[in-house]
Design goal:
Length: about 850
Amino acid sequence: MTSLWRHFTWPAWRDHPGRVLLAIVAVMLGVALAFGVHLLNGAALAEFARAARSVNGQPDLVLRAANGPLTDADLADVLNRPEVAAANPVVEGQAVWPGQTGRDGRPLLIRLVGADSLALLASASGARPLAPDLIPQVDDGGGTAAMLAARTLHLNAAARRHLADGQTTLTLRIARPGTTTPLDVEFSVGGRTTAGNEPLAMLDIADAQQVLGRLGALDRIDLQLVDGTDAKTWAASLPPRWRATPPDDEGARLSDLTRAYRINLGLLALMALFTGSFLVYAVLSLATAQRLPQWALVGVLGVSARMRWRLILLEGAAIGVAGTVLGLALGVGLAAGALARLGSDLGLHGASHSSGDLLLGQPLLWPALAYGALGLAAALVAALAPALTVRRIAPALVLKGLGLPAGRTLPAWVGGGLLALGAALALLPPLWGDTPVGAYAAMFCLLIGGLALVPALVRGMTAALARLPAGPLLLLARERSRDQATEARRSLAGVLVALALAVAMTVMIGSFRESLMQWLDHALPADLYVRSSLRGADGLPAPLPPAYLQAVDQLPAVARSAPQRSTRARLAPGAAPVALTARRMDAGNLPLLARWTGRREAGALPVWVNEAGRDQLGLVPGRVLTVELLDGGRTVPLQVMGVWRDYSRQNGALWMALDDYRQASGDEAITELALWLAPGQTPDAARAAVRAAAAQPDDIDTAAAGELRALSLQIFDRSFAITVWLKAVALAVGLFGVIASQSAQALARRREFGLLRHLGLSRGALMKLLLLEASLTGGAGALAGLGLGLGLSAVLVFVVNPQSFHWSMEMHLPAARLAALVGLAFAAAVGASLLAGRRALGQDAVRAVREDS
């Protein structure tokens, strides 16, 4: 094998380095995109988890109340239990830093974390500190007294960026529960903490309870147990008013939330590798066609079919290894470049980790081996068909000029069966959470089934030509297309797959964007939207003052207003709260997908749920449930009356009429206003009037409907920007594959062209013949790619998106873009065939006939 490689393969590679380099680049790009996406996802998750752990620490258990907040009495009870070694009470809130703005141009929000400094210091002296990054480092050496000083904030790096040189005090505006009047509190600037990425301030627990208006209340208690205590058994022994769980893994929670997006993005990157394998196949097929006489000669001289087979596989392995190694290196470079552009904290601003730490701090060996194995496998699979061809040649016949053996044709029922199997797999429910495994398998079956049906499609189009007047060229083109239909599948495989994927992604993204725009019209019916820039302890907008609401209604610029209450509800004791929105029925219609037309339960208030609530929480139309309204503190029966489309969330959310909510909860607070402007009023003038009506204009956050639409579409386009590059790479690789495949076929037909020239056909006539043949096969490939793409897009639109993100949509076909894609694929196939034929026709006709004798 070494001698064959040195004397047979290496000279061919040396004489045509561009083709080999092209195949290596195809594998390299596929591996680099997939590995780079994996590294970026891992870095984002690791940095987010690190920032969360720096604030929350790593206790053995986190104690919360089954309903409502914990109290100081709960803390005393816990500390008296012999199994508890240390306990840190925590209360959290948010405040506005007046005069400072965030990255979005809105007033700067700062997270307040109240903790027991003494408990943190005590745990820091042990082997397992509770939250070491939260312990303040005091610059002036004041020690414990400085940490416990009244009204003192210890700021992290992200917050300190907003301090002026020499600034020792700052004032924060805080929304307190039970009142709509915010409180301005002046604090001293204390030490430093290394916790968190976003602006954060740590203060003593007693101060936090006082300034947040939550005296005696606690959000949670972080616990460390005595060595030898089984946390699970101890947690099960606690009274039912408590709920003790392992610490929330924020990284795992973000991983669950973004799993669908990451999997879909990773599979798109792997599609580039899948398409690249067809280019490797085309390059090796071209090399096989060029060296066919040499293959036959070495076969006559004693090189067995098995050795020929192994040599082609070795060539594919060499391409795969080179492309994989370069792809892994390029993937690291792409990820590092993205991190350098976004910042080492991926846009979170404040992380202390460098790009190298984010990349190299995650497991690399097994992912690199996995993606490397995929790259090598893609190259080896691509080499199988040329290897089989060389193995099956009859050397004596090839030396007589009879060319390659006829390709094997799969029965049409195989392709049809794969298409039917794909349709059946698309109906399977998601596995592993929200991962649509059946849909991905369906897309693969559709691709393979479509490829298997290409010969049948070519023969069908050839049969349709039989009704046309048969001139000599048309007769030759028709007969050749019918006899070489299998070769059409091989030559068009790369561009067909690339076109199908490009069509599928174009239709899916276009459908999603069009559906989003229609949804925004439903979700944003008013001209201007108003809310407080302050946040409550739950992170939701603070209530607007009643006097301000009355003042806005009396403004001449406002024709009418619709109030809204954003709050939360708990569906079961101890369950995580879900979003609840209460607004008036005339404030715009919800984009309903399903309605309950059955019997209305007496005493149950109507509620509508989003698709995530239906799929994740089982809130199907007609179901009656009892929920706890967190702001009203009451329990109320509800009945699901319908399901609405919600593109703003991937978690469950409820909507109910504002009057029903007020009656059930007793909560009269309003958190948002939707305003319709009077005729002739501009959004800017109305915005100024709305802000001027507030006692503190900086506390009012406004946005015009057009701004919210533009921002939503900007976020959408940015989220799918990478798919443009993935489609471009796949299409480029597929088009190069067509060129290489057509070159291989043209070289194999040199003797045929020479014979036709000898029989009297002119060079121009032969070019017309090639044009007819290429139009026939290229048209079949373009039609097959379009049909496959539409089938794949249906799976993406109607299966993958609803199962992955719980977002349904209607299919919209962007006709102009689809026509451009199909026309590009057709023109590339025809142009590649003509280019390859022109080169083959450059051979002398007499010499070609002599080679055939």
